[in-house]
Amino acid sequence: MHSTTSLVSRIKRDHPQFAFINGNEFRWSPDTMTIYIDQSSQDFEAFVLHELGHALLNHKSYHRDIELLKIERDAWSHAVLALADVYNVAIREDVIQDNLDTYREWLHRRSTCPSCTATGLQSSKGLYACLGCGTRWKSNEARNCALRRYSITH
Ligand SMILES: [Zn+2]
Ligand SMILES: [Zn+2]
Q: Pick from 48, 107, 109: which is nearest to 75 by CA?
């Protein structure tokens, strides 16, 4: 655990504008400028840099589900391109893809028309509509962690 402790202390020292709190999941809270750190997580170092990516990119809320996938992808890109070398962390591509897959699957489930299983389109208000059969639906299935990460402002 020595290396993870020193990684977090370096990151804290370099980013005094953010608070860092131990929690039971990785999470970035834009309202309080706080990064929550799950010390017991697999691939700890990769996820620390991922959350730092969210923080440095100033990620706030998202309005449509598809935007969440973009936010997640951007945070990984920032971690890999701007942070991994600085903090000497090797971020494995399969860790990134596994994580993005959970968002892709969530997005797929939410956007699937309950009547005809075509893929619907989501309006800015969060309602889905099927162009095939005209069904409209609002998915209330929560993305297990991510929906608590970013509040929907509509
Ligand atoms: Zn994320
Ligand atoms: Zn349909």
A: 48
